[in-house]
């Protein structure tokens, strides 16, 4: 049975553990049986020295797998953490000391139902499990841990009897170490046999070479190179380990390491090849147990590579389905989420308004959930007016794409607003008589605002200041708070997860004068002046005397200061393809949330500057006659002819006069304005 990264140990521990090992007749019988098949089992790689060598291999420059998997974890952890109705249990197969997993656990625990979370690592190595638990207790004493010692099948049987919804985690591309497809399928079947409704099986695998993204040599070098000689020693150490465990007399000088890539099988093979004819004996009786001819090989280890297609095939063969695939843009590593085939019950999944699991196949579900039906009604209502709702842009992938867009050279808005904040912050900051509360709408991770907070604290009465960011994405707010505590630990922060109107009710009850921030020209995304006015009126209804609302807006083109092309290029250009993908991802997200079947290949993105509305308009245009259906009911929801357009988003540009009209229409007054010398952006202070 394959084993994940074992614990790294000091040399004295290595020596101590090896001296206590003696051979067993069972191990000898197992080794002799494997030699008849010209192969070894990977469990023989992991004595104490082998574990230590493996840790060193993973730190070498050629071994990209650990870094690639970490990238997947870093990018998709916000999408993965929410699971379970009453309790979330993370069961990790072959956990070792859990170094990589420990970094994930606080976020998973925070998003568990009512904080009810348990970590259950499984490993055959008792020392590794005790070390795992000891480290976790020091790092995160609040997280409950129940270790399970044993082989995977025994451990899973015990762990999955625990009450609660489970995530079974199998990282490190260890699945690729099974020698045959049958062994791999049998392993997945074994895990499936212990899973209940609402459980999921997440498998991390290294992907095959991909033209233009991942060369064959890049994959092969991770195994055939041997920086520091660690790979070479790791493979030869198996002979020493076999000698001790099985009482044999392999001599490492009789073999050499041979590593090959098989393009058809998508696999790296590690073999030991005999350098001369020789025999292997049992110890101490000297009986010949095996004979080798020069050039004869023993298969030591396989490293199969699996892409989405291969994982889908394996899952189906085992009676499961792939419900999600998680890969970074370079596609170097894949986390595949498997569910029992026929189990489409997603009741256990907690879904926020802004976040959805990437590649979730909601359209496979036999019935639509109430939230899906509600979102479908939204889609149908939008399509009647050939418009799209911006909420469908911001699943996890959409949020990440938007962050990339804001970093592109053509997207001037973020840089311009940040410069305005830096220049005017000491004028803007002073507020309040008794205490000052800064409420930020749609705060996200707060990167831009954090730079502004020290000035706000300094300008608050007697230093009484609180930062209260609002967002419907709880993970973003947790990141916001964590970043702030590191940058400015002196600043108090109270995060408010939810929709604006719901959380502004709580804000209204807070004691102190508030500054409500609405930045990033987000107000300009409303499709009409009436919608923008209604929004400001809603915010006003939760303000008290002495509060203020600050709105940041991008200004329209102006002769000699800001050209139409400069404004338009921020949206029509698509450096890195991020803007293109952001718009099209909205269709994918609508499919998942609303149970519909937009086909992105049937649409193209069109971006226009509308002089009359002083706005950039984003459309998708139908490339052919088509229909959009409900899934799985297959009811026609909308029909489109070639050339028909759907308005995806509006990016209005507000002059001081237009913003004043909207604010006054909501019953408020603009009492102050701040603009840079080039007049590219505007902050307006609105009061009752």
Summarize the structure.
By secondary structure, this protein is α/β, with parallel strands linked by helices.
Question: Approximately how much beta-strand content do the residues carry?
Answer: 15-25%
Mean pLDDT: 85
CATH fold title of the largest domain: Rossmann fold
The CATH architecture classification of the largest domain is 3-Layer(aba) Sandwich
Total E-strand runs? 26
Number of domains: 4
Assigned CATH class of the largest domain: Alpha Beta
Secondary-structure content class? alpha/beta
Low-confidence runs of at least 5 consecutive residues:
1-21, 342-368
Query: Roughly how many Å apart are the termini?
Result: 69 Å
Largest sheet: 8 strands, mixed
| DSSP summary: helix tally | 23
- C-alpha Rg (nearest Å): 30 Å
CATH homologous superfamily of the largest domain?
Vaccinia Virus protein VP39
Overall outline: elongated
Percentage of helical residues?
Answer: 25-40%
Question: What layout of secondary structure does this protein have?
Answer:
Elements (H helix, E strand, L loop, with lengths): L10 H9 L5 H11 L12 H11 L6 H16 L7 E6 L5 H4 L2 H6 L6 E7 L2 H14 L4 E2 L2 E2 L2 H8 L5 E6 L10 H12 L7 E7 L9 H9 L5 H17 L8 E8 L4 E8 L3 E4 L6 E5 L4 E8 L3 H10 L2 E7 L6 E8 L29 H15 L11 H11 L6 H16 L7 E6 L5 H4 L2 H6 L6 E7 L2 H14 L4 E2 L2 E2 L2 H10 L3 E6 L10 H12 L7 E7 L9 H9 L5 H17 L8 E8 L4 E8 L3 E4 L6 E5 L4 E8 L3 H10 L3 E6 L6 E7 L1
Parallel strand pairs: 1-2, 1-5, 2-3, 2-4, 5-6, 14-15, 14-18, 15-16, 15-17, 18-19
Antiparallel strand pairs: 6-13, 7-8, 8-11, 9-10, 12-13, 19-26, 20-21, 21-24, 22-23, 25-26
